Structures are given as structure tokens and as C-alpha cells.
Amino acid sequence: MTSLVTSRPAPMRCASADRMMWITPSRIFYAGLLGAPSLQSKGAVVVYVALEGALRVRVGGGEARSAEVAVIQPYTPYEIVACGRHVLSIVIEAETVDRERLPAPLNECGPVAMPAFAAHVRQLHRAWVDKGAAFDLTPGDFDPSFFGAALPAARHDARIAAVIGRLQGQPSTPLSAVEAAAVAKLSPSRFLHLFRQEVGATFRAFRGWKRARSVLHYVKRDDNLIAVALDTGYPDAAHFCRCIRQTYGLRPKDIFAGSRKLRLIDPCPPPARALGAHAGGAQ
């Protein structure tokens, strides 16, 4: 197996003033530190764009390959490194789009040839950095900005949609499979089967991703990590650290340290966790 890092990275960086994260309920745009290459897996379609040079990516234990754009499919283990320490990325929540009708490159997994798209994303990032405090885009502006139009929306069975909506809106609130089945008015076994059929992931994996994703809303908060873990629904620090590392390939403390100079644009922060809730009940 070839190494992801084949030579000393060139000093291609995103200046402190250029680092940003625009997070909406169904999308994320990030410009900033990538971190060391470590195995990770997210419950979303993730598009990476190199700021300069190339990315090097390994999907599912395969051979490392290079390109300036890489697309990763939901719940797929991968490792990635950039020529420099910084990257641009777009995160598309998998359950919000009809993946069969997505533009063809977004159904790839690994490096893809999209030079015009890469240039467009870099130009958008520079324009948004230049706007500074005048950045005023709404969640509805996200897809048209990057893709020219809204991506095709998914349509789910109403019973499963009710559970998806609950986890999207309150990711830190405990919700067991049995409780979710009751929300859907289905038996637990039928619910779990239908959920996987509709969403393309197990209920447990989906719930875990939504919780890990919610942590991104807190990266600028001046608080200790135990408080963040509890506020986002994790039962303890050890569980928090393990889950975050599996999702992002980084320890929570490294994510928060690397976000100190990040400009967070968060027009729709999640509601506060229900008083007295305890994540240990969500099995």
C-alpha cells in the first residue's frame, strides 16, 4: 500500500483571514486546516477541492490516488491529504438529496477530473473572504452558488421522514431505535429495515453522524470539551473522543485548536439540548 504523503508538503496555505465554515442544516462549506491523514467516515457526500496543487486520497483501503478534486460517498472510510495543510470542502447531507439524480461526478468515489469546478469553488471562496462581515448568503443560496441550481431533493416515506426530521433538528436528544419506531408507528424490526432502505444507512450510523456533525456548531465556543460532549449528547468524554476521531480523523481537541481562527457562519444553529437529557439512553 502506498503512502498518502510522498514528499514534504509545499507551503500552500489558507491565511488566517481566509479560514471559514458556512454551516446550514443540510450543507457545509469549509476552508481551512485539513489535518494529518487519518481514517475517517462521514454520513454525507463530501467534495474536497485543493487550494493549490493536488489532493491525495485513499478510499476503503485501496491505492492512494491524486487529483485536485475528490468526492467521497456517505459512510465510506477514507484518508486524504493535501499538498499543503489546507483544503476547501463541500458537505452535502446524504438524506437530503436524490443521489440517483445528482450530477454524475457527485456519484463518484475518489479523485475526479473537475478542473472548472475546482476553479469555480476557489473563486467563490475568495469572493466570500473579500466580503468579510458583508457575507449574507442564506441556506437557499448554497446549491446555486456551487452547482448553478438546487440539487434534486430526496423524497422519503413520511414515517421515516418524521424520524429524519427529529434527528436533524435535535441531534443531541436521546432517541433509541425503539423510540424512533414509535415515532414512525412501526414495529422496531420493520422500522430498522425501512429506515435503511430509505436512507441508505443504518439508524445507528445515521444518528451517530448527526450527533458528530452537530459538534461543528460549537467549535468556536470557549468552553471545555467535556461540556461540549454533554451538550451535544455524548455520555462521557471517552465516547465523545472516540466517535469524533472516527468521523473526522482528528481528536476533538485538535479540531477545536485548529478552529480558533476560523470564521463561523451559522445562520441556523441547532436548538439547545433538552434539560436533563442523557445520551446514554440512545441505543
Number of separate helices: 9
Global outline = globular
CATH class of the largest domain: Mainly Beta
Helix content: 25-40%
Q: How far do the termini sit from each other?
A: 37 Å
Biggest sheet, in brief? Answer: 7 strands, mixed
- The CATH topology label of the largest domain is Jelly Rolls
Q: How many distinct folded domains?
A: 2
Whole-number mean pLDDT:
89
Q: Structural class of the secondary elements?
A: alpha+beta
CATH architecture of the largest domain: Sandwich
Model regions low in confidence, pLDDT < 50 over at least 5 residues: 7-12, 274-283
| Percent strand | 15-25%
From the alpha-carbon coordinates, what is the Rg to the nearest angstrom? 19 Å
* Order of strands in the sheet with most strands: 9-6-3-8-2-1-10
Q: At the fourth CATH level, what is the homologous superfamily of the largest domain?
A: Jelly Rolls
What is the chain-wise order of helices and strands? Answer: EEEEEEEEEHHHHHHHHHE
Beta-strand segment tally: 10
Can you summarize this structure?
With 283 residues, this protein is an alpha+beta fold. The protein contains nine helices and ten strands.
Explained architecture:
With 283 residues, this protein is α+β, with helices and mostly antiparallel strands. It has 2 domains: 16-147, Jelly Rolls (Sandwich), CATH 2.60.120; 158-281, Orthogonal Bundle (Arc Repressor Mutant, subunit A), CATH 1.10.10.60. The chain has helices at 115-131, 142-147, 158-169, 177-184, 188-199, 203-214, 225-231, 237-248, 252-258; strands spanning 20-23, 27-33, 44-50, 55-59, 65-67, 69-72, 78-82, 86-93, 110-112, 263-265. The strands form 2 sheets. The protein has a 7-stranded mixed beta sheet with strand order 9-6-3-8-2-1-10, covered by helices on one side. It has a 3-stranded antiparallel beta sheet with strand order 5-4-7, with no helix packed on it. Helix 3 packs across helix 4 (177-184) and helix 4 (177-184) packs across helix 5. The protein is globular and about 50 Å long. The two termini are 37 Å apart. The relative contact order is 0.16.
